[in-house]
Specification:
Layout (H helix, E strand, L loop, with lengths): L8 E5 L4 H12 L3 E6 L2 H9 L5 E5 L7 H13 L4 E4 L14 H29 L2 E5 L12 H24 L2 E7 L5 H14 L3 H12 L7 H12 L10 E4 L8
Parallel strand pairs: 1-2, 1-4, 2-3, 4-5, 5-6, 6-7
Length: about 260
């Protein structure tokens, strides 16, 4: 689709694999200029080599307090401004609540919540100048709690609340802020969960996948490309009246209001 994003500048964190890589590829199709951020420079360079657009590769660990300022400074130096910020980076440890350490909790918030928050804060003046937008990739665990996802659920809930708060500010400043809650998406991370279920249930990969689908109450797993197309929409002028929108892309997994 033509999302009217040609030559605009987008930052995508966690862009080296999975959903982040799919988002970067989709925005590249829209002929945006991209800043690809992740901890693996080799994977980022490999990804950038196959994108038919101007790319800046920036290796960073956004858990570090100075990372956001460095990413934004590099972006502005190269492209003179910012139109879209996609906060996608973030993984949290699953497991028994009683066995999760303080460092597990701190790491989960440092990467996904504080990393995104700092990028929003530092990029905000540039997004005001461009009447740009932020798309936060969060997750259905922020709306529906589960015992083995205590850290992720808490982090996601906080990021959803931040999305709403910044959207309120954005009405005054002319910046759109929205979020996407992916459900079970076919990424490497999902394969790890399927393997765990297979070991637990004594079955093969396909059997474990069917067990997971049944537990989640969905017909199939989603694809990274399906999330990426939603990002392009929310970043585009077609979504001009979306402000503080929380878009569940989960095959019907979330059944609460």
């Amino acid at each position: 689709m033509d999302a009217q994003l040609k030559n605009k500048v987008a930052i995508v964190t966690g862009a080296s694999r999975g959903i982040g890589l799919a988002i970067a590829r989709e925005l590249a199709k829209e002929q945006m200029r991209l800043v690809l951020v992740a901890r693996s420079g080799e994977l980022l360079e490999e990804a950038a080599a196959f994108m038919a657009c101007e790319c800046l590769v920036h290796v960073a660990d956004i858990r570090k307090p100075d990372a956001a300022s460095e990413i934004i400074a590099a972006t502005v130096q190269r492209f003179k401004g910012i139109d879209v910020l996609v906060n996608n980076a973030g993984a949290t440890r699953r497991g028994d609540f009683l066995e999760l350490s303080d460092s597990d909790w701190a790491d989960g918030f440092a990467l996904k919540f504080f990393g995104a928050m700092r990028l929003c804060r530092v990029s905000w003046p540039y997004l005001v100048a461009s009447h740009g937008s932020i798309v936060n990739i969060v997750g259905v665990g922020g709306r529906t709690a589960s015992a083995e996802f205590a850290i992720g659920g808490a982090v996601n809930s906080a990021l959803l609340n931040l999305t709403k708060a910044l959207a309120h500010r954005g009405i005054m400043d002319g910046v759109r802020v929205n979020a996407i809650n992916p459900g079970a998406i076919a990424t490497e991370r999902l394969q790890v969960r399927i393997k765990a279920v297979a070991a637990e249930q004594g079955t093969d990969h396909d059997g474990a996948a069917e067990i997971m689908l049944h537990r989640l109450g969905i017909a199939r797993f989603g694809t990274p490309d399906e999330i990426a197309k939603c990002v392009a929409f929310l970043a585009s002028p077609a979504a001009a009246f979306c402000q503080g929108t929380i878009l569940d892309v989960d095959g019907g997994e979330t059944r609460t209001l």
